[in-house]
Amino acid sequence: MKAAVLHAPGEPLTIEDVEIAFPGPREVLVRTSVTGLCRSDLHFIDGAFPHPLPLVLGHEAAGIVKAVGRDVTYVRAGDPVVLCLSVFCGHCRHCLTGHPAMCDTPEVNLPPGVSRRMSWHGETLHQFYNTSTFAEQILVHEHAVVKIRPDMPLDRAALLGCAVLTGTGAIFHCAGLRPGESVAIVGCGGVGLAAINGAALAGAGRIIAIDTQPSKLALARTLGATETVDARDTDIAEAVLDLTHGGVDHAIECIGSKRTAEAAFAMLAPRGLATIVGIPPWGTKLELDAISMLADRRIQGSRMGSNRFRLDIPQLVDFYLQGRLKLDHMISDRLTLPEINLGFERMRAGTALRQIIAF
After folding, report:
1. Which of 191, 207, 278, 354 has a CA between 20 and 30 Å from the CA of residue 183?
2. Residue 154 in domain
3. pTM over 0.85
């Protein structure tokens, strides 16, 4: 099969002929239909985070089950599925307390460098967080997939596995936004736009979208933003405090920088909650005004929206087919696998929204 391989940080991905194993016990082989390009992949391409190499990146995809291994009962060949890197075991303390996204059981969440599911010229080809979707086929544990309705378009469904799951989950699960509350979304990329749409679904009273790109701010209004802040040459915390006369109930940070994370906390009203969704550079430390915490202001992290993807994704599919989740607006470019480096160049330049590769 063909796959895009990262050989060294900072180098373009190369398209290689790769060998993939047959499904073992509780494993599922998926024929990839569509995969999305995510900034998390770019972090590894640029060397911001370590990982054994060579490596097949990608973690946001939808496809059709091609074959299943022994003891698999959840899916069968021909089922449409969405993949998610939040592989869960179902029996650890995280899973049993309703937090499967935090599962770290090594029998399903194989540590980097352990998987032997792919090879290239006889050499182990490492799997990215137990998914590796930049390939024509994907071999995963059965707990890395969720079945979806056959009438759901797979190009839209692919977005649900990361960007939409993370953005809406930050609203529904992490922030626990209640009807009428106000929220500021910092960053209107794929995750931020999904958070805006999720806030509208949750009944937020005011939804303030913040970005440097006017086109993204315009799209944010289409997805439910009630107000926008152009972040070019603007102190975004002061702008939100002025707009709201005292701050927002929730701030969702979807960029992953020290400056924007600290600004998210600074724009909170008393008893407000900042949720940091973006992935900051390795070793980043935040500086917060400790006195502000005396007014019950809080800050927290989010791991892929604290998702329960086998419950969340079918619900998101229903929302889309009902016309309430606006996935059509999020796809900016459609690429082929050999064009993948062009997609990441666009991502670096900030000119793309969510790009997908169709196989």
Report:
1. 354
2. no
3. yes
As a whole-number percent, the residues of the chain with pLDDT over 90 amount to: 94
CATH assignment of the domain containing 177:
3.40.50.720
Alpha-carbon span 12 to 340, nearest angstrom: 9
Burial of 94 (0-12, 13-18, 19+ CB in 10 A): middle
Contact in structure between 206 and 179 (CB atoms under 8 Å): no
Determine which helix (DSSP H) or strand (DSSP E) holds 106, and give its type and residue range. none
Domain assignment present for residue 156? The answer is no
- State the residue range of the domain holding 184: 167-303
DSSP string, 16-50: EE-EEPPP-TTEEEEEEEEEE--HHHHHHHTTSS-
List active site positions.
38, 40, 43, 59, 162
Q: Is the peptide bond before 54 cis (omega within 30 degrees of 0)?
A: yes
Length of the chain (residues): 359
Please count the structural domains in the chain: 2
What is the mean pLDDT of the segment spanning 294-312? 97
Asked whether residue 235 falls in the same domain as residue 276, the answer is yes
